[in-house]
Amino acid sequence: MKARIAWLPGDGVGPEVLREARRVLDVIAGEHNHEFEYVEADIGGVAIERHGEPLPKASQDVCLTSDAVFLGAVGDPRFDHLPPGKKCENGLLDLRKLLGNYANLRPVSVFEALVDSSPLRRDSVRGVDLMIVRELLGGIYFGSPRGLDETQAFNTEIYTRDEIQRIARVAFKLARHRRRRVTSVDKANVLEASVLWRQTCGEVAKQFPDIAFQNMYVDNCAMQLIAKPAQFDVILTNNMFGDILSDEASMLAGSLGLLPSASIGGKIGLYEPVHGSAPDIAGKGIANPLGAISSAALLLEHSLELPREATKLERAIVKVLSRGYRTPDLKSRAGREKSKERIVSTKEMGELVCDYIRMPDAT
Length: 363
Hints:
Isopropylmalate Dehydrogenase, two-stranded antiparallel ribbon, 14 strands
């Protein structure tokens, strides 16, 4: 297979973690006779610095002429003073809108080797395997009107029935390939937009009688994610709630640096680690690249339709972790496990994953 991938390293640790993801993709390509072409483009702070805007036209053109888009991270404190709509993060929001990717998939799995890296009790997190399906193009992040002056600020939460229906169908179809449970999360007791959300998701649920369905208020879901996370299979929720809950869920796995994401729904998928640009550790070689590398597995599965290669990559990650290799963010909270850990750099972690992919039993 030949594939063109738009490569957007972005800000902070973005270039560092994407470098390791690219190394891994190149090994996959070599092992399976694929040819991946990477076309680099600017986004976020680096784009503002070079082009005066967070998502320049040249970057848009690269993305629209590729088979998939891979993003590192956006965010640079040097540009925090810019007005709303001009900040680094707007490059990402505009990119999602450009690609038409309304469904954000954020899997959260607790590796057996990392049950002691979570701040929660091991009996709470063991076996956790959930998928957050976040609506990505509607809600308060995109609603209008919005405004800010010296005395007040306001944003508007807007959803249409069609927007809710299409994201709900994604969640229910995913559940059919998992454990057949969907939890729809809203705030229907106080928000009209959530009333429509709850009504519409309930209507879609009737089209999937084989899937167990329940509604849950977002405040209760936030509590249940910590108290009993293993109860969840697929969590279906809106843009803002999904943003918050997925970051909370990262602590189940042990680190935000582990988690991948895929934004799908348009013709071109967008893949990125869940974590931000982390400017405080940029350039130190200690960022965890596994979120980016796992995002590469999602790219292989969803955009390139190479499930065997995706599985091979995922199994390599499991093997690396099971043998005790850790980036600093994954240090165990349990003293008895620390003697088994081997702390490695960003680059070393990427090289280890590559080594395990090359092993004959990696499949």
